[in-house]
Amino acid sequence: MRSSYYYVYCCRFLAVIPLVALIVGPLALADNTPPAKISKTTREEIIHAFNEDLVYIRTPFPMGKIGLKLRNGTVTPNGEELQHLMALWGPAAKAGDQARISDVVIKDNYIRFEINGGPIKKQKWYKHIQISGANSATPITPSDSTANARGSFLDLYFDKYVPELTGPELKELLRPVFDFDSKSAVEAYLETVPPLVKDAIKNHHVLVGMNGEMVLYAKGRPPKRVRERDGETDYEEWIYGTPPQDVDFVRFVGDQVVRVETMKVGGEKIVRVDKEVDLGAPTLAKKKDEGPANAPTLRRPGEEMPESSPENPSKIPPVAPTPVPDPGGTAPNYASR
Q1: Which of 83, 127, 167, 282 has its CB surrounded by the most CB atoms within 10 Å?
Q2: Are 101 and 129 in contact (CB under 8 A)?
Q3: 109 pLDDT exceeds 80?
Q4: Which residue has the higher pLDDT, 199 or 336?
């Protein structure tokens, strides 16, 4: 009896399996279906919507042909490498700055967003028009040859190709670099700093370890600046407030706050020197020590420099011997030194 029930149960179970496969199979295939490639209409809509749009910057951009790359939410270069590029080429835009997306180019697997004119100087179409005369041609609008490009760019990368996506989806992908929602530069800048610094800026409070930009957002431009020297260290103090109000003396060494002194109205003096926020050491651009490959020289072909001679290993050039008169009146003898 039990065997017959078992047989019926197995038959029913085997009959259900094909039905489950028919239902689950298409759903699984639908989940694994790759997204469609971006259409021509979407391309035009994205270029039209984002071109000439104003955004606030969340990640610093270095000037030059080395822009930023954004892939899977990660921005490169970053950290010390980005600081080195900023120190070497200068900033095209800093965190909290407002920038204009000057061009949008959609390639095979990435979208390029140029800001503030891009890294290469471009001319308008009418600047190519010239009026030809008898012996020469003159452009109708003179160009400024000394003007350099001061923009940069961001490349947003995808896996294999640019998929079909909407404007809000693209803004969310760009959020690590561009802020489309902030209404002011301060609001945009606060989203790029640590929480401790963010609270201090909101309360107009200066922390030891801040940089100059943070102090400007917290206290504004100082009414007075004083440059002094303490031993071998040069420093600059920003002075906020005038008696009978509290007066803050913010001391900088380089671009970092190292001391904050507050003089209270009642005569109390508060000094803070311990670092309260650590932003890392600033990166300075290193200059190459090598000279040009073909430096000019006065040496004859085959002549060696004094420091390259094994007989004179020091870098002091050899001194010519002093002539000593000959008692016999003939040619002078040279005494060895």
Answers
A1: 83
A2: no
A3: yes
A4: 199
User: pLDDT at residue 105 above 50?
Assistant: yes
Contact present, 55 and 101 (Cβ < 8 Å): yes
C-alpha pair distances (Å), 331 with each of 67, 110, 315, 327, 328: 73, 84, 32, 10, 9
- Give the model confidence (pLDDT) of 71-101 as tens digits: 999 999 998 899 899 889 899 998 888 899 9
> Which residue has 């270095």 as its token pair?
62
Crossing angle, helix 195-202 and helix 212-219, to 10 degrees?
Answer: 40
Could you report the per-residue pLDDT of 112-147, keeping only the tens digit for each? 999 998 888 665 555 556 676 666 666 655 554 444
DSSP 142-185: ---TT-----EEEEEE-SSSPBP--HHHHHHHTTTTEESS-SSH
Q: What is the DSSP string of 292-313?
A: -TT----PPTTPPPGGG-TT--
End-to-end CA separation in angstroms for the chain: 126
Closest CA to 164 of 73, 26, 34: 34
Q: Which residues of 15-24 are buried (b: 16+ CB within 10 A; e: fewer)?
A: eeeeeeeeee
Bridge partners of 139, per DSSP, are 130
Q: CA angle 202-203-208, nearest 5°? A: 100
Percent of the chain exceeding pLDDT 90 equals 43
* C-alpha span between 147 and 165 (Å, rounded): 38
Question: How long a stretch of residues is the chain?
Answer: 337
